[in-house]
Design brief:
This protein has 3 helices and no strands. It is mostly helical. The protein has a domain of 68 residues. α2 packs antiparallel against α3. It is elongated, with a radius of gyration of 22 Å.
Length: 99
């Protein structure tokens, strides 16, 4: 049986103003998302440094794990840079709006 990812609300619930809100209380704020991206960069950098150390000392069993850690680090940095760029674009767009 196929189950829906999200429960379907009734039409009466959709007419209620409290049921439809632009910002959900269970959603993460931008600050939390940005902090999560920063933490991901820190974690992947620590993992990369650890695998580089293990490779340099000859303790690493699988040398390809260092390349995987480097790729994960690069992807997390790229994502953080894109988040920053999007935030700056949004801010500049908002600052150009006339009230």
């Amino acid at each position: 049986m196929i189950s829906p990812i999200e429960s379907i609300r009734s039409i009466s619930a959709l007419q209620n103003k409290e049921a439809v809100s632009p910002v959900q209380s269970e959603g993460a704020s931008f600050g939390q998302i940005f902090q999560t991206a920063i933490d991901a960069v820190k974690d992947t950098n620590a993992k990369l440094s650890e695998t580089e150390y293990l490779l340099a000392t000859g303790q690493l069993d699988n040398p390809s794990s260092m390349m995987i850690a480097a790729a994960k680090y690069q992807i997390s940095v790229d994502m953080l840079v894109q988040l920053r760029n999007r935030a700056l674009d949004a801010y500049s767009e908002l600052s150009r709006m006339s009230i």
